[in-house]
Amino acid sequence: MIDWIYFFDLCGTSVFALSGALAAGRHKMDPFGVIVLASVTAIGGGSIRDAILGATPVFWIQDPNYIIVILTTVLLTFIFVRKPKRVPKYIFPVADALGLALFTIIGAEKALSLELGGMIAVVMGLITGVGGGIIRDLLCQQVPMVLRTEIYATASIIGGICYSVSLYWGVPDMFALLFAMATALIIRLAAIRWHLSLPAFDLKTQQ
Questions:
Q1: How many Å separate Cα 21 from the centre of its chain?
Q2: Is residue 151 within a helix (H) or strand (E), and if so which, with residue range?
Q3: Distance (Å, rounded) from C-alpha 100 to C-alpha 14?
Q4: What residues pair up with 150 in beta bridges, in sequence order?
Q5: Using one digit for the tens of pLDDT, what is the confidence trace for 86-95?
Q6: CA gap 47, 149 in Å, rounded
Q7: Residue 196's closest CA among 205, 204, 187?
Q8: Cα–Cα distance between 195 and 200 in angstroms, integer?
Q9: What is the pTM of this model?
Q10: Would you say 156 and 133 are in contact if contact means Cβ atoms under 8 Å apart?
Q11: 151: left (phi over 0), alpha (psi -120 to 50) or beta
Q12: CB 159 within 8 A of CB 184
């Protein structure tokens, strides 16, 4: 099971690195900027999680494979995603949604492996899933996606709950992982496809 967790973690790293690289391309950053944005998107959330949990040194310092995956993803993006070939608009949000689903479960699993409670696992899954995207959006001078009304953090929270509850009910680890990951991904993709959103908190100023 640990091998599968590690595999999905590396997959999530690559997917979020792609998301960051595409965002950098949309903002016409130089190669160094692309690497920085891809890196913070891919390992930012996990770094915050590990710092909060006291799991130091953080995961990517202990295992340089994460950096190798990021650099490889950036290199492949430079090679295959270039003008004049236009990148379909759906690639960025779909890559981000997949990264969100993957990292949500990775974060929850990390907390549970440290024998923390289900509620903490859900929070750590949320931080892992959205942390890198928040840093990415702030560096791009955008309102972080998690703070917009379109369903984003909610998908991560539900995915984390599904994972924690499934394990509590004795569901085999792999089935719990796939079920929770699919749930978070489907919710996020549905929100993208049909523009589903939570009600906005709108305080009207009195005239």
A1: 14
A2: none
A3: 12
A4: 197
A5: 778 888 899 9
A6: 26
A7: 187
A8: 14
A9: 0.92
A10: no
A11: beta
A12: yes
Three-class SS state of 150: strand
With 0-12 / 13-18 / 19 or more C-beta atoms within 10 angstroms meaning exposed / middle / buried, residue 168 is exposed
pLDDT tens track, the chain, 207 positions: 457 889 999 999 999 999 999 999 999 999 999 999 999 999 999 999 999 999 999 999 999 999 999 999 999 999 888 654 577 888 889 999 999 999 999 999 999 999 999 999 999 999 999 999 999 999 999 989 888 767 999 999 999 999 999 999 999 999 999 999 999 999 999 999 998 988 877 777 555
Query: Using the 8-state DSSP alphabet, how is residue 140 labeled?
Result: T
Angstrom distance (rounded) from CA 138 to CA 206: 31
Residue with tokens 């973690």: 9
Length of the chain: 207
Longest dimension (CA), the chain: 61
Which residues are CB-contacts of 14 (< 8 A; sequence separation ≥ 6)? 42, 69, 70, 72, 73
DSSP collapsed to 3 states, 37-106: HHHHHHHHHHHHHHHHHCCCCCHHHHCCHHHHHHHHHHHHHHHHCCCCCCCCCCHHHHHHHHHHHHHHHH
